Amino acid sequence: xxxxxxxxxxxxxxxxxxxxxxxxxxxxEMLFRKFWKLWQLNMITFILSLPFLIIMYTIAPVxxxxxxxxxxxxxxxxxxxxxxxxRSLFALLAFNLLGSGPASASYAYITRSxxxxxxxxxxxxxxxxxxxxFKQSFILTILDIVLVMLIMNGIYFYYMQYINTAxxxxxxxxxxxxxxxxxxxxxxxxxxxxxxxFSSTTxxxxxxxxxxxxxxxxxxxxxxxxxxxxxxxxFNFFTPPFAIFLSFLITTSLVRFPIEYSxxxxxxxxxxxxxxxxxxxxxxxxxxxxEDADTNEGEE
Length: 300
Known about the structure:
Layout: H1 2-8, H2 23-33, H3 35-48, H4 50-59, H5 64-71, H6 76-98, H7 102-115, H8 122-132, H9 134-165, H10 168-187, H11 191-197, H12 202-215, H13 217-237, H14 240-270, H15 287-299
Helix pairs in contact: 3-7, 3-14, 4-6, 6-13, 6-14, 7-8, 7-11, 7-14, 9-10, 10-12, 13-14
């Protein structure tokens, strides 16, 4: 009888009153606990981001002369392999650091739910948020592609002008564009979390994400170093096809989940403290969003 009673007895489960881990310990506890779901989320996001990855692969600033300048003379097969490696690395870095539109919005929402210990359905919630944020995230992606091309051409042009003329002004302009592009990347560490958390126009979304990225600058630098380092490490130890396959399986989440986790935690602590949190929150940290909230209350 005791055996049957054991079948009916509920297990201990997770004590909701138990103290939560903090800092990096909480992150790794969540990473290991959600690893299976992150694996599924990683593959879905990667597949739906293939158009963006292909575009980034195509426009990557990699040429045979660039490769030869790095490794010296090489035969055609070596050049082809190096082209594949550098272009793939560029595409994956752009994907991991900038995001890829609607798929990244869905990824941000689900990882935000993980961070807040809220339930999320991988397929249904991913689909819903993909549709809900499609317009705004698609505009963002188009702008990203255009700006990446302009930034690459601008840096190359100003640097070549500096080489040809030795004028310091060209070097200053080159460094200025590079610095602004880094800040633009850091803005993307928060823009998708902002998108799925607050109701705002695209202009407000860009402005508020930029302000928040400056407020989180030290953490952004740390996360960028980790993201770039991990991608470079994978391509250093594995062949390009296998490195791409690893990104499809899990590498993307190992890079992007820390970014989304950090952003979601920072937004929750700095912007949403002591506030109710519906599916789309209206916050009072930024003036534009505060005005939106007041307008909605007046309509009610």
